[in-house]
Structures
1.
Amino acid sequence: MRRVTTFAQIIRTCEEENWKLADYFLYQEMDWRQREGEDSSPEAILEKMEINLQVMESAAKEGIGGVQSYSGLTGYDATRLNAYRSEKAPLGKSIYLDAIVNAIAINEVNASMGLICATPTAGSCGVVPGILLAAREHLKLTRRQQLDFLITSGGCGLMIGNLASISGAEGGCQAEIGSASGMAAAALAEAAGGTPQASTNALAIALKGLLGLVCDPVASLVEVPCIKRNATGVVNAIASAEMALAGMQSRIPTDEVISAMHSVGQLMPSALRETALGGLALTPTARRYTRELKQTGKITWKERKGPLPSI
Ligand code: SF4
């Protein structure tokens, strides 16, 4: 299989071969496995994806059942949201609310040190499965279509990681929640019948929506604002997929949007890239939480030497 480095090339190949993005990324994975001397059959790859999907399903169930983080900063919000969905939901039941419940549940399980599947990272692990588990009900997806959803989102994440970054420490939260939102938007658009062009438009629109988002975890823990940002990523992804399916295009091509995300990350001061030295992490309330958590002795931090970097 020809090696490609841009979404423009991937779209061209998909159009020539009449493939979906899921077909492209599956063949790419088969090709890589063959080169590595691993089992390169589609069955072997789908089997691995099935394991990932089962981890996601269990995490959603566990989170909705109620979990709390070790620090005590977060927990039980998925349970609250689930009860709100069943008993009230004054704004109406929708794929948005279903996906938010799952996303918060899965990210709460991450904060409680439970088992999750990083998509693309642990901090952003709720976005892709949150949408998939909601979309499969709304779109009546078969099991194979659900695995294709994961193959498409995973392939898009790999591209973003190679062309830019999926690390908050390197590119800020736009690289984590932003990438997750782009991955989910592309997979959702495809699951709803969108072409590769429409799906990559969805990715670009989603990534643009969260461009510049900083990484500022309170007390250096992947909890606040991370868990609620998974809901933000979900809503942004669904809206982006809707826009792309309606025929709206990203005026800036997908590859250039990813490149812009990379350059924004490079320009971002280190205080806003997972060091907890800026943004929400430096608010008076966050400092109080940090002090209180230190006093409990449950969590320890290495003392930072030297002055705070300028923002
Ligand atoms: S704020 Fe930072 S740690 Fe939290 S999800 Fe975003 S990138 Fe990850």
Note: DSSP finds 13 helices and no strands in the chain.
2.
Amino acid sequence: MDWDKLNAKFEQADPKSILRWAVGEFGEKLAIVTSFQPTGIATLHMLTELNAKVPVLTLDTGILFPETYQLMDEAEAFFGLPITRIRPELTLQEQAAQYGEALWERDPDKCCHIRKVVPLDKVLKGHYSAWVTGLRRDQTGRGNTPIVKWDDKYDMVKLSPFANWTSEMLWIYIHAHELPYNALHEKGYPSIGCNTPVCTQPAKDGEGERSGRWVNSDKVECGIHVTAEKG
Ligand code: SF4
């Protein structure tokens, strides 16, 4: 595919049109990977409007917030899309026995590798031709995110239909369509990951949507986008 040409076209298109193209192009070989942040919610809504039955995958690390588990159930019912919860090979207890308690405090990269990167790799690679992410350029470190690219990491096409949307645009969309969202967003958490004191905190004033993730460390990504769009 001519990525430059496609990106130039998609920069002028709305996310729903991009999703429509992806569904037509990849059919059942297209997967949505979401952690039910606002972009994921808008993606699911647009897919239901397109009447597209695309597999929805989410990484259930086993240590998500109760509010996130609740939203998963709610979203499954609301959108009528079955959600596949991808779980790591090791339970939290097995991980603690093998690597020690609270690995996320000592080596969050290893923890994310075990609980997110490897499980997603197993499910995506070789099974799909394209995946849809919720990456946006207004998020820290993601300023160069293309809407579409070849993803060497998973050997497939990677789509970020909302790359040029802002957080504000998403919230207008979500409220306008009365869509469900994570209750933690109203408690100061714009970005929500695992429920540990180091992995997810409320965002600091003026420091960006993902400033509460992996606090007091240089880590800014869990690893599933590591070969990707550094801003
Ligand atoms: S976000 Fe934290 S707890 Fe979750 S997998 Fe990564 S390091 Fe582990």
Note: DSSP finds eight helices and six strands in the chain.
3.
Amino acid sequence: MRVSPVTILAVFIIGFFTGYLVYSSTAPPPLTITKTTTAATTIRQTFTTTILSTQTTTITSSYKVDGKPVDLVATVYRIVDGDTFDAFPSGRVRLADINTPERNEPGYNEAKEALRRLVEGKKVFLDVDNVNVMDSYQRLVAVVYVKHNSTHVLNVNLWLVTNGYAMFRDFNNEFNPYTWSLYLPFS
Ligand SMILES: [Ca+2]
Ligand SMILES: [Ca+2]
């Protein structure tokens, strides 16, 4: 039996489309790329937005130091030096308006150990500088409070100065270190 070229062509075309239909119904969906942002960037953006706007979003905690709402509560997991630590979710925190000795300067280790005893592994209550939020190294600038007892917190920045581990350095920001009190009521 002779098969005409038209029949062969028709079978070929039908086969091609059948194959395509089977492929298109079973092929995986096109790859989509989801935009991701690192956690640190998200935290910083959220926090910066919060501080620079109205301080009324969920990040503002319900704790109060001296009757004023605490800007951020964080847990310290690493001491960097006498005036800097890493905490979650705040990221790196630089204690406002004080300065401790740099590495290889006298008093460096003592200041670092003093800060470690005060805050390492603990929950800290941060009053973040509303004026600049961060310094030029992207560290959150804050007055740091830690629980002293059930009714009061300790101003860590001031404690380091009064105990000889740090000096005041009054930067242009929200804080005036000469008005600080060592212990403040906490609720
Ligand atoms: Ca503040
Ligand atoms: Ca200041």
Note: The longest strand covers residues 72-81.
